[in-house]
Amino acid sequence: MFMVIENTPGYLPEDDDPAVFDSVDEAREYATEQLDRLIDHIAEGQDFDDDANGWTVIGDFAEGDLSVVVYDGARSHDLGRVIEIVLVCPVCREAVWDGPQGHKLAKCWNSEGHPSGMPLAFDTMA
Ligand SMILES: [Zn+2]
User: Fold this and answer.
1) 18-42 pLDDT per residue, tens
2) Per residue in 63-76, is it b (16+ CB within 10 Å) or e — as a string?
3) Ligand 1 centre from 124 Cα, in Å?
4) Do residue 60 and residue 116 come from a single domain?
């Protein structure tokens, strides 16, 4: 499963209940919508600003990136917003940061979060 989170870099995600998807493609589609929405929001804010400087997007979901950072050019010390696709354990929903590199199975070590009380291997290609 894949979770899409949006937050300010260096801060905990504000959203307690992030969207979760079965496939990375679905997550990517949703993340792209979130990115469009964020850019619309920045553009709207700049409509009333004489010093509007546009925005900068680093990363591209369509190119396979799993995280994209957006900076609002009108804010001089903007930390940016990051939209990120994170692999999560299908049982305990913990983020699995060391996801498989080209392998099918990922492992979640959060034993207490599983009914079995054991680490869990799960299929990332489902
Ligand atoms: Zn787990």
Assistant:
1) 899 988 899 999 999 999 999 999 9
2) eeebebbbbbebee
3) 13
4) no
